[in-house]
Amino acid sequence: MTQRSVLIVVFDDVQSLDVTGPLEVFTGAGRHSGEPYEILTTSLDGAPVRTSSGLTLVPDRALPEAGTPHTLLVPGGEGTRCPDPRLIDWLREHGRHAERVVSVCSGALLLAEAGLLDGRRATTHWSLCDHLAAKYPAVNVDPDPIFVRDGHVATSAGVTSGIDLALALVEEDHGRDTALTVARHLVVFLRRPGNQAQFSAQLAAQTARREPLRDVQQWITEHPDADLSVERLAERAGLSPRHFARAFQGETGTTPGRYVERVRLEHARRLLEDSADGVEQISRACGYGTPEAMRRAFVKALGTAPAEYRRRFRPYSCAEPTR
């Protein structure tokens, strides 16, 4: 049996959860599977580092003393803004030979600086996607998913998405049962799909400035099964359909139709995760009308059918005992 190694790079002003979240996943997976990962934390000179929250982390060894790992994990944090050139040089050399290279949050900036994301699809925290795309035009930045895999490189959005990505890697290494057990222990989803959006519909869209439009946004959220055509929504806002559509997009940054699609998809996902209702009942409750219409929406947005989504991504009760 070949032991897989996980090397986590730490540095001053690193985001502590970017380090400890995946570390807990890999440690728990090794404990359950009986095949522990060889986990090492490293800093450039082996000295303790202070995280952005003030926590001090004591690494296992200096980075130059570490060989090329199976999985190289690069967390994010304020310390990625002005990285030490020695760190970039090490990543450039060893990242090309690791079996897997993983970043959490702004750790993607370090991978990009080392050239490891050139020609690849990648993501990072939503607030940094424009910066990543502008500074590194060779990177195909996708701002929407919580994590992205392209070849042997995987990038994830902020903080908790690092746990989602780590669970996906554990499932790849040790199977679904091990990943499920770890998720239960951590009381998290197994697992949010990588192409799940970083934001809910309400957060992804801006809040309209004018009260009638804000009221319409709230109405859509509370009544996904209603007639949400532009004509009916415009009537509710007291505007002509043309004026409403233009004003809604201007103030929220998205079209009424796209907003309705995201709200309905979100509502359907929550019902699949949290209720025992059948797919047909859920499709009506969310305004799709038929299971086939809901299936098409799920496949288009998430790449999976509703029944498969429920099977794979339903959360597990913390009250359920784990042995």
Automatic annotation (TrEMBL):
Domain called HTH araC/xylS-type: residue spans: 214-312
Entry-linked SUPFAM superfamilies: Class I glutamine amidotransferase-like, Homeodomain-like
GO molecular function term, any single one: sequence-specific DNA binding
InterPro entries in UniProt: Class_I_gatase-like, DJ-1/PfpI, Homeodomain-like_sf, HTH_AraC, INH-QAR
Keywords carried by this UniProt record: Transcription, Transcription regulation
Domain of life: Bacteria
Keyword NADP attached: no
PANTHER family in the record: ARAC-FAMILY TRANSCRIPTIONAL REGULATOR, HTH-TYPE TRANSCRIPTIONAL REGULATOR RV1931C
Protein name: Transcriptional regulator
Source organism of this protein record: Streptomyces phaeofaciens
Lineage of source species: Bacteria, Bacillati, Actinomycetota, Actinomycetes, Kitasatosporales
